[in-house]
Design a protein that fits this description.
38% strand, 4-stranded antiparallel sheet, elongated, mainly beta
């Protein structure tokens, strides 16, 4: 402050001299045009540098934030941190969850103030099952406006595919005639959320985006053990007789940030082929590699498991015996079914820890027993035997709405309560012409939402449901369905 005062005093003296000389007619003869000039200088604004030792880390790891400043008397933090800070220093950040956090520092001095920011990126961790990945994304995003291909083929999932600490979306178009197209296989697309809109950024991370003919479900899990989200598409091929089936596709994350598009195969490279209407994945033993359960309605006629070999290839295993549909006789319907039984009646699979035992149970849903639709499958929870195997003697049959011939399509488990969504024939007999969301507490079922008219996108049924802020929502915001839990 002393040096500033001296400069101010010199400026005042110089100005006084100029004024005095001008008053006395000095500084030039005959009203000359010469002038004097001062030599004042301003105080420079503060400068600030702010950076992380590692700008991208995994959740639970640490990165050091370092900052320095000049011409600053004080600094204040905002954004991902807060409070007064020294004009220089370090801070160790150890985030416990994924996300992109921006640390801002504003430093002030006699010359003003300057603000700088640094961002720490923590890729969103992959959960231990595809169901948990779905729930984590749902809690973060809520219902979303989905591209038209999701309405047609149903395949959509969310994960931090770009490893930038935010959720992005993957979809798969349909090439099957039943999806409104004809001929070639469908294509896979990655979307990023930019300024509130989903924009296609497929070419950034995927060079070959040709997929299967008819995708039915997309799931996110870690299939190659690198801690990044991979994608599996359950595909069933041409949806008409003779139902030849097809191979599933999988997107495996690569070390350079891109994805490799491969078929789901065994260790010899032979694809698993079937009418795969659904799939779910989980890491059963903490190996870092997720196993898969698939619903193969036609080729195998029963759901079965694929054990991960640890490299993104699989081997069929026997932890789930061949599932025989329930008999339509008995109260409640009982196992096994000995006549008029169709394996094609099972359409939905999900691995969920329903009772918080630390073990994944298996939900199987499909055509409920009735007289108008093929199959007679009661929605069932196959309880984990404790060693990650399942049997038909350790099950819980769930209630279903017997007033409508329904197909169970999706399931949620929230605080011990089960929610399902199903579709059925409408009054005119059209398939997929009616939707219902059901709440199941023990043996009691209550429909909490029922609809039988077309939505704004032309669909007449709800495929996926999610939990969000105490409500059960349709994943596609175009449906506008949101009901209290």
């Amino acid at each position: 402050m002393k040096s500033t005062g001296k400069r101010f005093l010199r400026a005042v003296i110089a100005t006084s001299v100029v004024v005095l000389l001008s008053a006395c007619g000095g500084g030039g003869g005959g009203g000359g045009g010469g002038s004097g000039s001062g030599s004042g200088s301003s105080t420079p604004a503060p400068s600030v540098t702010l950076s992380f030792s590692q700008p991208k880390i995994a959740a639970g790891q640490s990165s050091t934030l370092t900052w320095t400043s000049t011409n600053a008397a004080s600094c204040t933090a905002s954004g991902a941190w807060s409070g007064a800070q020294g004009t220089s220093g370090t801070a160790t950040e150890t985030p416990g969850s994924g996300g992109a956090q921006t640390f801002t520092l504003t430093c002030s001095g006699a010359g003003g103030q300057t603000t700088q920011s640094a961002t720490l990126v923590v890729p969103i961790p992959v959960q231990a099952s595809s169901y948990l990945n779905k729930i984590a994304a749902a809690n973060a995003l809520g219902a979303q406006p989905l591209p038209a291909e999701v309405t047609a083929g149903n395949a959509v999932a969310f994960g931090d595919f770009f490893q930038d600490g935010t959720y992005s979306m993957v979809t798969h178009t349909c090439g099957d005639t039943n999806c409104g197209a004809n001929g070639s296989n469908g294509t896979i697309h990655f979307y990023k959320m930019i300024n509130g809109q989903w924009l296609d950024h497929t070419s950034d991370i995927l060079s070959n985006n040709v997929g299967c003919l008819h995708p039915r479900k997309a799931i996110v899990a870690d299939f190659n053990g690198d801690g990044k989200p991979d994608v599996l598409f359950a595909c069933h091929g041409l949806d008409q007789s003779p139902f030849p089936g097809e191979a599933m596709h999988m997107l495996l994350s690569q070390s350079d940030g891109t994805y490799k598009n491969v078929q789901v195969t065994d260790s010899s490279g032979t694809p698993f082929t079937g009418f795969f209407h659904s799939a779910s994945a989980a890491d059963f033993n903490g190996r870092g590699f997720d196993d898969v359960v698939v619903v193969d309605n036609v080729t195998a006629g029963t759901p079965y498991f694929l054990k991960n070999n640890g490299d993104g290839t699989f081997a069929k295993d026997t932890r789930l015996p061949a599932v025989v549909p329930y008999s339509t006789t008995g109260t409640p319907p009982v196992l096994p079914c000995t006549s008029n039984c169709l394996g094609a009646g099972i359409f939905t699979a999900e691995l969920i820890d329903f009772n918080n035992t630390g073990k994944f149970d298996l939900f199987l849903g499909g055509n409920t027993p009735d007289t108008t639709m093929s199959g007679n499958w009661v929605p069932t929870i196959f309880k984990n035997n404790g060693n990650n195997t399942y049997s038909q003697s350790n099950v819980s049959a769930l209630p279903y709405d017997s007033t409508h011939p329904t197909v169970t399509l999706d399931v949620l488990s929230i605080n011990g309560v089960v929610y399902t969504t199903s579709t059925s024939l409408n009054a005119s007999g059209s398939y997929y012409g009616f939707s219902e969301i059901q709440k199941i507490v023990g043996s009691n079922l209550s429909p909490i939402w029922v609809g039988n008219k077309s939505f704004s996108n032309g669909s007449t049924w709800i495929n996926w449901i999610i939990p969000y802020q105490g409500k059960i929502d349709s994943l596609n915001s175009a449906y506008g369905v949101s009901v209290a839990e």
